[in-house]
Amino acid sequence: MPHIVRLDAPATPGVIDHPRPDRLESGNPRRETWTLYESADRQMSAGIWACEVGRWRIVFPPGKDEYFFVLEGWVRLHDRDGGYTDVRAGQGAVIPGGFEGAFEVLEAVRKHFVVVER
C-alpha cells in the first residue's frame, strides 16, 4: 500500500553544480539541489533548489514537465520567440515538456520543485 511522504526541510547540504559551460549565457551560478523524494520508477522527483544570479539555456525533452514554486527570489524564463515570464517569491509556474529557452535568476532563488517524466 502506498504511503504519504512528508518533505521536511533538509538537514544536510544539497548536491552542488553549475550550468553546463556550453549553455551559459551570463555568470556561472552555483546551484544546490535537495532531492527529497523520488518515485520507485524514477518518473517523478520533488525537492528544493537554490541558485545564484545567472542565465543559461534550457531544453526540456517532450516528456518532461516541471512545476515549481518560488520561496525566495526572482526568476525569468525566456522563450525562443523573445518573450519571457517572471516568477517571484510567492508565485509558481510550469515548464512544459518541449520548452526551449533560457532560465535567468535575477535575484538569488530558492524554490520547491516537482519534475515528472512520462
Q: How is the main sheet built?
A: 9 strands, antiparallel
Instruction: Describe the global form.
Output: globular
Task: Round the mean pLDDT to the nearest integer and report it.
Answer: 97
| Helical amount | under 10%
Number of strands: 9
Strand content: over 45%
Termini Cα gap? 23 Å
Strand/helix succession: EEEEEEEEE
Poorly predicted ranges = none
Supply the CATH architecture: Sandwich
What would you say this structure looks like, in words?
This protein has 118 residues and is mainly beta. It has one domain (16-117): Jelly Rolls (Sandwich). The chain has no helices and 9 strands. Strands 1, 2, 3, 4, 5, 6, 7, 8 and 9 form a 9-stranded antiparallel β-sheet that branches. It is globular and about 45 Å long. The model has no long low-confidence stretch (mean pLDDT 97).
Itemize the secondary structure elements and their pairings:
Blueprint lengths: L14 E3 L6 E3 L4 E8 L5 E8 L2 E6 L4 E16 L4 E5 L3 E4 L4 E18 L1
Describe the structure using short key phrases.
single chain, 118 residues, mainly beta, Jelly Rolls, globular
Summarize it.
The chain is built from no helices and nine strands. It is mainly β. The chain has one domain (16-117): Jelly Rolls (Sandwich).
